[in-house]
């Protein structure tokens, strides 16, 4: 697995942008739709009255098997129509995925009940032979015209290097193409043990 990082120019996006973004990505690079492990990392945005604002140095990041990087590189120079906004992709570069002891996902799909959600996450990590500590965040919903996705934000910490890489490669839950269940490095959490 590898990250492909694209320079990105655009303005304001609707909150439901992940659905239209994926449609546009596969319109320009249809082969990516056939690869189940392809994920689109959530864009870094700032909220405004008009919607979500992209910062000047925004990046679009695709996480995918190394073998699919050639198909992804065809996106360079593409114009993606997201609602009334247009995003233009610039050049791309590859970024190796590095092990970090603390990872975060904005939205991991799963049960609406937090206890049931956490039980399922623990079971999945056990199946993957990953040992770590979990912090469940807010319940989140990503809704569009044809999709509604529910889940929770999640921080996983005290990961060993091999477990960190495995989690970043495989993710958790469903809907990776909409930015769900993809883990990225999170600022170090300190003082957790002392607080107990």
What are the defining features of this structure?
196 residues; alpha+beta; Alpha-Beta Plaits; five-stranded antiparallel β-sheet; four-stranded antiparallel β-sheet; 5 helices; 35% strand; disordered C terminus
Structural commentary:
This protein has about 200 residues and is α+β, with helices and mostly antiparallel strands. The chain contains 5 helices and 12 strands. The protein has helices at about 15-30, 70-75, 115-125, 160-170, 190-195, and strands spanning about 1-10, 10-15, 40, 45-50, 50-55, 60-65, 80, 85-95, 105-110, 135-145, 150-155, 185. The strands form 3 sheets. Strands 3-6-1-8-7 form a 5-stranded antiparallel sheet. Strands 10-11-9-12 form a 4-stranded antiparallel sheet, covered by helices on one side. The longest helix is centred in the middle third of the chain and has 14 residues, at about 115-125. The model is unreliable at about 190-195 (pLDDT under 50).
Count of helix runs: 5
Rg from Cα = 17 Å
| Multimerization state | single chain
Major sheet details: 5 strands, antiparallel
The pLDDT mean sits at 89
């Amino acid at each position: 697995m590898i990250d492909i990082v694209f320079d990105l120019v655009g303005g304001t996006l609707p909150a439901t942008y992940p659905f239209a973004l994926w449609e546009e990505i596969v319109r320009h690079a249809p082969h990516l739709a056939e690869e189940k492990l392809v994920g689109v990392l959530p864009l870094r945005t700032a909220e405004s009255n008009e919607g979500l604002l992209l910062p000047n140095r925004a990046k679009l990041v695709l996480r995918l098997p190394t073998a699919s990087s050639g198909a992804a590189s065809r996106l360079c120079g593409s114009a993606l129509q997201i609602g009334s906004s247009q995003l233009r992709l610039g050049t791309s570069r590859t970024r190796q995925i590095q092990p970090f002891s603390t990872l975060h996902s904005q939205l991991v799909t799963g049960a609406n009940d937090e206890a049931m959600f956490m039980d399922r996450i623990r079971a999945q990590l056990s199946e993957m032979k990953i040992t770590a500590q979990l912090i469940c965040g807010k319940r989140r919903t990503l809704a569009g015209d044809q999709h509604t996705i529910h889940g929770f934000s999640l921080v996983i910490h005290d990961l060993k290097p091999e477990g960190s890489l495995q989690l970043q490669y495989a993710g958790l839950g469903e809907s990776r193409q909409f930015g769900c269940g993809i883990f990225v490095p999170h600022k170090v959490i300190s003082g957790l043990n002392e607080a107990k």
